[in-house]
Amino acid sequence: MNWSSNKRIGLVLGGGVARGLLHVGVLEVLEGQGVPIDFVVGVSSGAMVGAAYCASGSHEQVRQVSELMRWDRIARPLRPSRASGFGVTFARLERWVEQTAGVTTFEQLKTPLIVVASDLMSGKPVVFQHGPLAPAVRASSSVPGMVEPLKLDGRLLVDGGITNNLPISIARQFGADVVIAVNCFPPPRAMPRSMFWQGVTAITWLLLQAGDDPHSADVLVEPDLDQVSLLRLASADLRHRGARAMIAQLPRLHNRLFS
């Protein structure tokens, strides 16, 4: 297909903990098709993948990074005296971002990136697009109650998904004519099999109702993720799910670009 268009494309990569690795498959298809991405908006794990992609401009580099991703490289337990919730800190995540991206600031990225975190005390989104990259990604990924918040400029910053897990409206604010949104928490398709998955289903609905309507995107990418773990870093399976879902939406993307 011909993708040359004068319309500006914004790619929104939603949060999803380990499920965020499906974004790699989406990027693989878009790059393989030659679809020009003007900028990326990332939340939580979407910010992590977005940072790696925007620094390199290559899905292949992002795939290599994702295959090496392990929890012990980005997280460590807090000392009991400091712990809250599960007592994990993402201080290592900042070093991981700098090492994998190979840059330290937003200005050094090859493709513009907007990272969305949340202010825990005001309940409002916090948007980063300039300055140090790693702290912004860390803040956007810090799930409250599980991960230590990032204290920055007098604020407690936590996961961007708390206020808007799929910030399509922010992509519009930054000038996107066509928004591709990748949702890691699609509505359930099957009855949850256990109390744990009932809880995941409840979280899914909370996230969907707290932020932008996923269907406000021009192109909505929603892989089949029923019973897919939030914590298991299974990069190959998630990458394939993301790729299949993006391929299915290519005709709609083409129509939106040239309608």
Give your account of this protein's structure.
By secondary structure, this protein is α/β, with parallel strands linked by helices. It is built from ten helices and ten strands. The chain has helices at 22-33, 45-56, 59-67, 71-74, 91-101, 134-141, 161-164, 168-173, 195-210, 235-258; strands at 9-13, 39-43, 76-77, 88-89, 113-119, 124-128, 150-152, 155-158, 178-182, 219-221. Strands 1, 2, 5, 6, 7, 8, 9 and 10 form an eight-stranded mixed sheet that branches. A two-stranded antiparallel ribbon has the order 3-4. Strand 7 (150-152) and strand 8 (155-158) form a beta hairpin. Helix 5 packs across helix 6 (134-141). The longest helix is centred in the C-terminal third of the chain and has 24 residues, at 235-258. The protein is globular. The two termini are 15 Å apart. The model has no long low-confidence stretch (mean pLDDT 88).
Beta strand count: 10
Name the poorly predicted regions: none
Sketch the major β-sheet: 8 strands, mixed
Radius of gyration: 17 Å
Number of helices: 10
> Distance between termini?
15 Å
| SS content category | alpha/beta
Helix proportion: 40-55%
Mean pLDDT: 88
Q: Which range does the strand content fall in?
A: 15-25%
SSE run: EHEHHHEEHEEHEEHHEHEH
Outline: globular
